[in-house]
Amino acid sequence: MPDLMRQGCRLERTGTYSPRVWQTAIGSSAATKLAHEHHPRGYIKKGEHKVRLYDQMSTPLSIRSRAVRLEGIQQRKGDKTMGNTVQLHRVLRASPEKIYRAFLDPDAFARWLPPCGFVGKVHEMDARVGGSYRMSFTNFTTGNNHSFGGSYKELEPHSRLRYSARFDNPELPGEMTTTVTLKPVSVGTELHVVQEGIPEMIPTEACYLGWQESLGFLAQLVEPDIPQ
């Protein structure tokens, strides 16, 4: 299994019944071999973005609702999606001080955090431990609005932030927690982001994709060194 994971192959057991059912990304002969080892009588049928094990009657076996859904998203080395958690790792050509400020400056936060197709607005931000913030994303195409807010749990200047977020929409219950760590390295800053408690209604892969776009915008904001 470790070899498969190093190849970028996402493989998950997706049932408690026997024989076992596996899903994996297309194109991994090793994963196909592994699936046959666990279900030698079955076979693999390929879909557009995934491979699913079928039984001898060519009838799909039941797949539980939280089975891995692969949408062709390419994960970077060091990034992970696990259950209701996403983890991202980047190295940016900017100082920890500048990146830290981009999380706590309202205008900067509204500039880089919204993913593609959304406009962000910070309604309030009290950037201190125990302080709160409120923000909204507006879909530029439809005008639909998603508002949320939370509080700051940890603020260690230029090295660590931890803050919560809760959607105003009752259909997206629960509290998310985002932890950001910054470490100076020879070329700039090593950035780690962990977001936990993502609501069940939001596919983890979609959240990961959004963070990929946001961190790209963050790099565009903090990496240029413009003297004037």
Order of helices and strands: HEEHEEEEHHEEEEEEH
Low-confidence stretches: 1-75
Largest sheet: 8 strands, antiparallel
How would you write the strand order of the largest sheet?
5-6-12-11-10-9-8-7
CATH architecture assignment of the largest domain: 2-Layer Sandwich
Rg value: 21 Å
Tell me the quaternary state: single chain
- Counting DSSP H or I runs of 4 or more residues, the number of helices is 5
Let me know the number of strands: 12
CATH topology category name of the largest domain: Alpha-D-Glucose-1,6-Bisphosphate, Chain A, domain 4
Counting structural domains, the number is 2
Determine the strand fraction and express it as a percent band.
Answer: 25-35%
Describe the structure.
β9 and β10 form a beta hairpin. The N and C termini lie far apart (52 Å). This protein has 228 residues and is an alpha+beta fold. The chain is globular, with a radius of gyration of 21 Å. It has two domains: 53 residues, no CATH class; 143 residues, START domain (Alpha-D-Glucose-1,6-Bisphosphate, Chain A, domain 4, 2-Layer Sandwich). The strands form two sheets. It has an eight-stranded antiparallel β-sheet with strand order 5-6-12-11-10-9-8-7. Strands 1-2-4-3 form a four-stranded antiparallel β-sheet, covered by helices on one side. The N terminus is likely disordered. α3 crosses α4.
SSE layout:
Blueprint: H1 2-6, E1 12-13, E2 22-24, H2 29-38, E3 43-46, E4 51-54, E5 80-82, E6 85-92, H3 96-104, H4 106-112, E7 118-125, E8 132-139, E9 145-156, E10 160-167, E11 176-185, E12 188-196, H5 204-222
Antiparallel strand pairs: 1-2, 2-4, 3-4, 5-6, 6-12, 7-8, 8-9, 9-10, 10-11, 11-12
Helix pairs in contact: 3-4
